[in-house]
Amino acid sequence: MQAVVVHGKDDLRVEDIADPVCGADQVLVAMEWGGICGSDIAYWKSGASGTAVLSAPLVLGHEVSGTVAEIGPDAAAALEARGIGIGSNVTMHPATLVGEHQVPADTVDRTNLWPEVRYFGSAAFEPHEQGGFSRLRAVRPDQLRVVPEGVSLKEAALAEPFAVALHAVARAGDMAGKTVLVNGAGPIGALAVAAAKAAGAATVIAADLSDAALDIAARMGADQCVNPASGGVLPQDVDVAIEASGAPRALGGVIAAVRRGGVMVQVGNLPGGEISAALGNIVTREIDYRGSYRFVDEISEALDLMASGVDVSPLMTHEVMLAEALAGFDLAADRSSGSSKVMIRLG
Q1: Angle, vertex CA 273, rays to CA 338 and CA 124, nearest 5
Q2: How many other C-beta atoms are found inside a 10 Å radius of the C-beta of residue 80?
Q3: Average pLDDT of span 245-265
C-alpha cells in the first residue's frame, strides 16, 4: 500500500510499504482522510518534533478518519455492542498508554499526562509508532470513535486537533460570559475560537500576523480580529488568553492583555530550549499561567459538537490526493500560501 513516510530531515516520500495485518484483537481501517499537522511538518523539515528524534522511517499522520474494513474475531463482540461493524465511519484516538506507573491521585484521569504515551506518527519511542497517512491502519477497538450522522469523514479527521483546542479551553475553566483572546489563528487557534464560543464565551478576539488566518478565525466565530503587523493593538483586561502561536516573543504582549487575576493557557508548542520572554506581569497581575497538552477524550466531544452544528469547514483550505502529498506538505508549511489545514485524500 502507499503511505507518506519521512526518512529524515528534508526526506519525505510517498512510497509503497507492506499492508498491515489485522490481529485477532484489532480492527483494520481503510483510511480516507488525513490533516497535515505542525508536528508532521517538523519531522519533515528537521527530522524531529520537539524532543522526539527520527531514528527510522516513520509513517506520518495522527489527524485521520476512515471506514472499518476488517474486524478481528476477539474484537467483534465489543464492537458489536458499540454498533460498529464493517463499513462504519470512524476516527481514531491516536494515543496508547505504555507501561505501569504510579501517578499522583489528582492526575489519574488525566491520561494525556501519562509518563509514557505512544502516539500515531510519533518518533518518541523505539520502535516508532507509525501514523495513519496510509491506505490501511490496524488499531485497537478502544481507539475507534464513531463518526455521527451529518459529519463527513473529511470533517471527522479534524476531531483530533479540535480535541486539542477543546482541552485548552477546558484548562482555562468556566468560559460563560468571559472575554477571551486567542493569540495565533493557525488551525489550533481557529479551533480554539470555535471551542471558546461553544463553551459560552461572550466575546472572542483572535490575533495573528496573517490576514488570511484571521479571516478563517472570523469564519470560525471570532467576534473581533487584530493584526499587530498592520498596526492592530491587542485588547486589554481580557478574562482569558489562549496562546496558540508558540512564539516566545508574543508571550509578553499576551500576558499584558490579561486582566489581574485572569488566566492564560499555553497550547502553542514553545521551543524546548531556553527562550527570552517578558513574563513579569504573571507575578504583578497574579495571572494563572497553565499548560495544555494534547487531550484526554475530548475527541468524542469534538465529534458531538460537529454533529450539533459547529462548522469546521473554513479551516480546510486545501485538498490533495495521497500521490500529491509532498505538494500538500509544501502548501501546509508555507503560510504565505493562505493555507490553514491541508487535507490528504488517503482512500
Answers
A1: 75
A2: 11
A3: 97
Residue 344's pLDDT band, with cuts at 50, 70 and 90, is very high
pLDDT score of 51: 84
CA-based nearest residue to 162, from 10, 3, 37, 1:
37
Report yes or no: 289 and 264 within 8 Å, Cβ to Cβ.
yes
The model scores a pTM over 0.85? yes
Q: Which grid coordinates are listed for 268? A: 502553542
Please state at what angle helix 325-333 crosses helix 38-46, rounded to 10 degrees.
Answer: 100
Check residue 12 and report its DSSP letter. Answer: E
Helix-strand-coil split of the chain, %, nearest 5: 30, 30, 40
Angle at Cα 133 formed by Cα 85 and Cα 95, nearest 5°?
70
Beta-sheet strands, E only, within the chain: 2-8, 11-16, 27-35, 48-49, 52-53, 58-59, 63-71, 89-92, 95-97, 117-119, 136-139, 144-146, 179-183, 203-207, 224-226, 238-243, 258-266, 288-291, 316-321, 341-345
270 pLDDT more than 90? no
Q: pLDDT confidence of 50, banded at 50, 70, 90?
A: confident
Q: Over the stretch 306-317, which tens digit does the pLDDT of each residue have?
A: 999 999 999 999
**What's the pLDDT score for residue 326?**
97
Q: What number is the average pLDDT over the span 50-65?
A: 95
CA angle (344 as vertex; 341, 346 as ends), nearest 5:
150
What are 2's three cell numbers?
A: 502507499
Sequence-distant (≥ 6) Cβ neighbours of residue 185 within 8 angstroms: 193, 206, 207, 208, 210, 213, 214, 216, 217, 222, 225, 244
Tell me how far CA of residue 306 lies from CA of 153, 154, 230, 311, 312, in angstroms.
11, 12, 33, 6, 7
Q: What is the pLDDT of residue 207?
A: 98
